[in-house]
Each structure stands twice: as C-alpha cells, then as structure tokens.
Amino acid sequence: MSSKGMAIVDDARVAYRVQGRGPAIVLVNGTSALDVHWGPIIEEFSKSRTVISLDYSGSGETTDAGGALSLKKLAAQVAAVARAAGAARFDLVGHSLGAAIAIQLASASPQLVRSLILVAGFASGAEPRLELQFRLWLDLVRHNRDAFTRLLVLSGLTPAFVSGAGSMTIEAMISGYMSAANWDGIARQIELDLQVDVRAQARQLVRPTVVIGCAHDQIVTTTRELADSIPGAAYREIAAGHLAYFEAAGEFMAAANDFLQQQPS
Known about the structure:
The longest helix has 16 residues, at 128-143. Helix content is 46%, strand content 19%. Helix 4 (128-143) packs antiparallel against helix 5 (145-156). The protein starts with a strand and ends with a helix. The chain has one domain: Rossmann fold, CATH 3.40.50. The chain is an alpha/beta fold and 265 residues long. It is built from twelve helices and eight strands.
C-alpha cells in the first residue's frame, strides 16, 4: 500500500509519501536529500510499519515562496504531514539536519512523538569544523555545483565504498544527483545548517531516544556529543560514512528495530 499527498503549511505545499501498514514512523531527510537517500530503509520499515516521508522546503516536489528556512518552520511541516497522513502519534527518524528538525519537533510537541532515532546528527552548526564545511558547501553550490556534488561523494561515503563502486557508477551517481537537485533550495537548507542550535531543546527531550553515529563520518563528527546531551539517550554506532544507508542499511535496521521493539506501542 502506497500513496502520495500534499500538505499545505503556511506558504508551502509539502509533498509526502506513505507506504506500508502498522504503527507510523516518520522519516526526515538531511540537507539536499530525497527519499532515494534512504536506500532500502523505506521498504524495510514498510514491512511492519506505516512509513511517512516528505520533501520539506527546499527539496523535491515541495514548493513555497522562497526565503529563509527555520527549524520551527520545517518541524511544523513534518507535523502537518504526519497529521495529513493520519498519524496522531509516531516514531521519528531524523538524519543530519533532519535530526535537528526532529529534536525541534519532539521538544515543542512531545505528545506527537513516541520515540526518536537520530542518525549522524549535530546540535550546533556553529561548531568550527561544521561551520567551515557548510560555508564551503554554500560557496560551491553558488559557484561550482559539480565540485559540490563530488565533494559530497568523497566526504559522505567511505573510501572503500567509493573505490569499490568504480568510476562509472560514481559518475552516474553524480550526474543523477545534479539533474535532480533543487539548487536554490539546497542553498537555503545549507544556510539553515549554519543557524542550527538545538542544544537547549536536546536537554529538554522527554521521549525515548537512540542516537546512531556513523563510525566513518567525515561530515558530522559531533554525534556522540549530541547523544551525551540528551537525557537517557542510548548511543549506537554503525560502520558507515555520513550517507549511512548506502553502506550499512542492515546495521541501521538492526539497531533501529532493536530500539523500537523496546518501546510501548
């Protein structure tokens, strides 16, 4: 069972997809990402759950009036999509920037969220290494998009994965990404990356939380610190780079399902 829809949130028409049956789980992408970046995760979760995914502003089929993004605005889009899909409460998975959006939503509306799975997340975009990286991304998106995409491949995946994939596969990935990318939207999302600060919200979380770090992450290196800031959060690590689901989908699903099975329905 699968369907598509649009949720109207302020000036945005937010595209979303629903697949599967069972308790609802909402997936929130990272910067510049689409459903394809979840790899096999949507299909795997949908075997036992209703999986809701969305394109928040700046991505995919969603349209809005442009302008600056905020965590509050994107968290409101996630909540509206869940409501439109019929999910009164849901488990929430956030990856990278999506982890910050998930924290924002769970801290502001804990009644909506059963539990949190935060993958490769960060609490502050002002951390010096992250800030350097995001400013470089922004410059490349504005002036050299091919270089930006190649940098994402090099830093988002492990050396073993890139070398094993081979040049033809990597070039096809780069070409496919560049043709599908919403470049103005990506720039707006990166500008938000620089503004992220969910340190206070993380300390206020009251829902069961597991933080999953990527052992070979070259983009976000502060995920363990995020876990340490969340009361009662568990920490797990999988053998992957930042784009975890291309390399360690099985490890991620094992960790996620182990956590979810411990939560009350």
